[in-house]
Amino acid sequence: MEKILIEGGHRLNGDIEISGMKNSALPIIFACLLIEGECILENIPRVSDVQNALSILKTMGAEADFVDYHTVKINTKSAENNLDFELISKMRASSYLLSCALVRFGRVNMPYPGGCNFGSRPIEQHLKGLKCLGARGGESDGFLTLKCKNNLKSNKISLDKISVGATINMIMAAVLLEGQSVIENVAREPHVIDVIRFLNACGADILHFGSYIRVNGVRKLKGVKYRIYADMIEAGTYIACVGATGGALSLKGIEYEHIRPLRLIFDEMNIKISYNSREIYVSSNNPKGTSMQTEPYPGFPTDLHPQLSALVCYCEGGGSITENIFDGRFAYVAQLEKMGAKIKRVGNTVYISQTRLIGASTDATDLRAGAALVVAGLGAQGITTINNVNYIVRGYEELTSKLASVGGNIKLIQGE
Ligand code: EPU
Prior knowledge:
Blueprint (H helix, E strand, L loop, with lengths): L1 E6 L4 E6 L4 H10 L7 E4 L5 H12 L3 E6 L2 E5 L9 H4 L8 H9 L1 E5 L12 H9 L3 E5 L2 E5 L8 E3 L5 H11 L5 E5 L5 H12 L3 E4 L3 E5 L8 E3 L4 H14 L1 E6 L3 H13 L2 E6 L2 E6 L6 E3 L11 H8 L6 E4 L9 H7 L3 E5 L2 E5 L7 E3 L3 H13 L3 E5 L1 H4 L6 H7 L3 E6 L2
Parallel strand pairs: 2-14, 3-13, 9-10, 17-18, 21-22
Antiparallel strand pairs: 1-22, 1-23, 3-5, 4-5, 6-8, 7-8, 10-12, 11-12, 14-16, 15-16, 18-20, 19-20
Helix pairs in contact: 1-2, 1-7, 4-6, 5-6, 6-7, 8-9, 8-10, 8-12, 10-12
This protein binds uridine-diphosphate-2(N-acetylglucosaminyl) butyric acid (EPU).
């Protein structure tokens, strides 16, 4: 098992190329089941969740391979309804098969999707929406089985909760139906916009109007070449890293619009962010604490909550973070405490006092919790080891080598 080893206290300076956005690459890969012809997807991150998604399509008989380092070619012409249950139960994004496989084959039977464990991750909104379009079936004994007679039917769907996954599933379910579907109370994350841009490039007719989405069904979607957005969460993680160490980073390839919601908080923390077309320049010296909460986009993302908590440990005045999306996203707290963090959790809020953390042996408990330990370790006195690196490689491409290239003393080592 690999581990990450970090000697803290080295300032970060230099350029980092931000990889493609995992959380849009995954639905876009599954959406290829709806498309006739070949898709060339560029800027696909080399992370293990992407490898799993490609393997799921290959098990179905599709062509789904990297043709160069960040480019994937997918052709699902010969795909059959043969789902790899083991891979599906490892990742949350396999929930996108609920729409894509149902539309393609008229039936889907799969285990409950897996993914990072931070409390219950219900999917009743996905099921409610698909039933609104005419699907029948549901969940039984950890399995999800949905069918539709002839085809799904366009309709109006009102989601009770803002959900990235349910929004994307509804778009993918509606895109090939005759007539117009309207999806209300939708998510607006850049991942959702990326999926819409991709499908529209393939010939779909989807419009996002803020809180609702209108899908005019089309008869078919054609294969295209499409470049996915860079990952705002990866960029935000490196902003937290430079906050913890001091220094200056240039983050390349990221859309400034996607960073804007982060900027409000980082400005408050005295972390300076400026931009120039698709490059963001970040510098930090003596960051200040903040009190903030996570919210659906354009609020501050839950996927940066643990990293921000680690950063606030190093900030003048400390601060607090309230988690409003996933109530179980606090497993990182015990790991930061091993490093001497003074964090108190009350309900969905953590109160953090300023402390110079000390290196320790820690365990990544999920993807972003692992990233938080990297932020903490880079700023800490002494050596930090992070076990369970398998969580981190699910969503970060070459995290250690990217940080080492800008001056971090961080490497992957073989553990016992
Ligand atoms: N929710 C329900 N019922 C549903 C669906 C969601 O109650 O049917 C709740 C969730 O429990 C949560 C909230 O709605 O409280 C939002 O969940 P959402 O559906 O938006 O999350 P998701 O689609 O499962 C994606 C990302 C997550 C990211 C969230 C929020 C993927 C594969 N995952 O999850 O990414 O945190 O949106 O932005 O896209 C990560 O990358 O570390 C990660 C966990």
